[in-house]
Amino acid sequence: MAVRGSYIKGVAKREEILSVALEVVAAKGYGRATVRELAEAVGLTQAGLLHYFSSKEELFTEILRLRDERDSGGYTNSAVPTVNMVDAYVGTIRHNAQVPGLVQLFARLSAEATDSESLAHDYFAARYATLREYIATSIRAMQQTGDLPADVDADAVARIFIAVSDGLQTQWLIEPNFEMADVMTYLARQLGLGGTARA
Fold first, then answer.
1. Alpha carbon distance 17, 15 (integer Å)
2. Are 56 and 144 in contact (CB under 8 A)?
3. What is the pLDDT of residues 97-111, one digit of tens each?
4. 100 SS3 class
């Protein structure tokens, strides 16, 4: 029974670390949020914090995973879209503009994840697959209702939508004088996907 209790406490501490770390990175940015600072924020030493994670890369990957869980609100987990895909997606982008540290973390880790040996590789591969399927399913639903032509390639549009979103984030980190969400809304409308999300 003591082992079970210890396990539950370990899981709770790990969740606490991730929650606090997400807030610190969001506020300070990936480059300024050191493992030591994250450890101190939850009352641990660096070694103590890394007891819960195999490396800094795993810690930061799990921060992104938690961010995704909170941002999606579960909308990507539904077999049938329950909210307007464009509004949900653009709403997340609009929120991201308020947390540049997390956008920076995403951009850096996604570049590192192109190496199949990276701990972040599997996270990004799964994330992109889930997001593509969500967008493509939304597009197919619009085709069934006649809101989009049947010859639109849902999978290709999903890849384009994600690629533009990621590219906009990189541009925005370098030159943050435009609204990413407005550009994505414009693209969605040009593709006939609709969307009403506004600030």
1. 5
2. no
3. 999 999 999 999 999
4. helix
Instruction: Give, in degrees to the nearest 5, the angle at Cα 21 between 120 and 92.
Output: 70
Token pair recorded at residue 147:
């809101």
Residue 51: what residue type?
A: H
Q: 128-137, pLDDT tens digit by residue? A: 999 999 999 9
Pairwise CA distance, residues 78 & 134, whole Å: 8
Q: Is the pTM of this model over 0.70?
A: yes
Structure tokens at 180: 């990413």
Q: Which of 93, 83, 94, 70 is nearest to 194 (CA)?
A: 83
The residues, ordered by sequence, that sit 6+ positions from 97 with a Cβ below 8 Å of its Cβ are: 103, 172, 176, 179, 180, 181
Structure tokens that stand for 63 in this block: 């921060």
How many angstroms separate the CA atoms of 54 and 139, rounded? 39
Rounded CA Rg of the chain: 19
- Report the alpha-carbon distance of residue 155 to residue 135 in Å, rounded: 8
